[in-house]
Amino acid sequence: MKIVAIVTDIEGTTSSIGFVHNVLFPYALKQIGNFIREHHEERDVMRILVRIGDRTGLALHNTEGFVKLLQQWIREDKDDADLKLLEGMVWERAYKQGLFQAHVYADVPEVLQKWQDRECNLYSFSSASIKAQQLYFRFSDFGDMRLLFSGYFDTTMGEKRDVQTYANIAQAIALEPECILFISDDKDELDAAEAAGMRTTWVIRPQDTSLDPERVRVKTTHPVVTGFEQIEVA
Ligand SMILES: [Mg+2]
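Above: inputs. Below: predicted complex with magnesium ion.
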C-alpha cells in the first residue's frame, strides 16, 4: 500500500536531543520561578496553579511553594500536563524574544517539503505538549515550519511505546496503518508502531547516539537511516 501520511518523532529524529536537554529544560528550570512570581495572578496561569494546588494541597497564595514544586518536577522531567503548559508559556516568551531557536537537523525541512509536495500529509508525535510542538516548529532554525504539518500528536494518544497508541493515531488520521510511515530514533516506539501495522524507519543521528547504524542495520527489521534524505517513501 502506498504511503500517504508520515508521522515523525521530534527529539533525536527531526531535532537534536542535546537542544532539548541542554537548552530548553535548563532554561525552564532557571526561569520558572520568575515566571510564576510575575504571572501567577494572570487567568491562564492561575487556572493551572489552582489545578496543581488541588492535586498537591498547596495553597494558592503559596507562590514560593509552587516555584519549588515546579522546579522539582522539571528536574525529575515529570510527565505532567500542567507542568508542560507552564513550560510552554516560559519557552514561548523566550522564543518570541529571540533568546534561542528550536533545533532542526539541516536535512529535514527540504525533505518534509518534498513529501508535502507529493501530497503526503505530515504529522509530528512527541511527548511534548501539542502547544510546545507548535512553538518548536514555529521558531525553528529554519523559520516557521508549521505549514509543513497537518497535525500534531502528544501522549493524549497514549504512551509512545504502546501499540494501541499507534492504532489511535491511525484512527485519528483516518487511514489504514499500512499507509502511514512512522519515523523515530527509538527502537521500542518503532516496534510498537510496526506491531500496529505502520511502516517504520529508524533514524540514527550520530550527534545524538553512540549506536552504530551499520550494526543496527543487520539486527533490525526497521530500515535504518542517518538522515531524512535517505528515507524511502513508496
Ligand atoms: Mg525520539
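The mean pLDDT is 96.
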